[in-house]
Amino acid sequence: MRPRPTLQxxxxxxxxxxxxxxxxxxxxxxVYLRLxxxxxxxxDWADVARIVLHLDPADKPREARAVHAxxxxxxxxxxxxxxRKLLTDAMNNVRPCDR
Length: 99
Fold this sequence. Notes:
- The protein is mainly alpha-helical.
- It has one domain (23-98).
- 57% of the residues lie in helices and 0% in strands.
- The chain has four helices and no strands.
């Protein structure tokens, strides 16, 4: 069973790279969506780092910017490629009476 998404996951400096979905990706699904929404709205990266990633860009700007960039990159990968695996997993977890 995969981990449930959370609004305040423990962040790594970079998401683990994989051609498939990782447990980390599942935990960060909501965060990835929020990052993509913020990007679409043209939000400032520092505001997004503070609000979505719970980082302090004023304290460690380079680190916050790197973490934001790495997670936004993975969010884009999820949007472009990873969503297929999410849909497959969801369909495989539906009981016959739910279909």
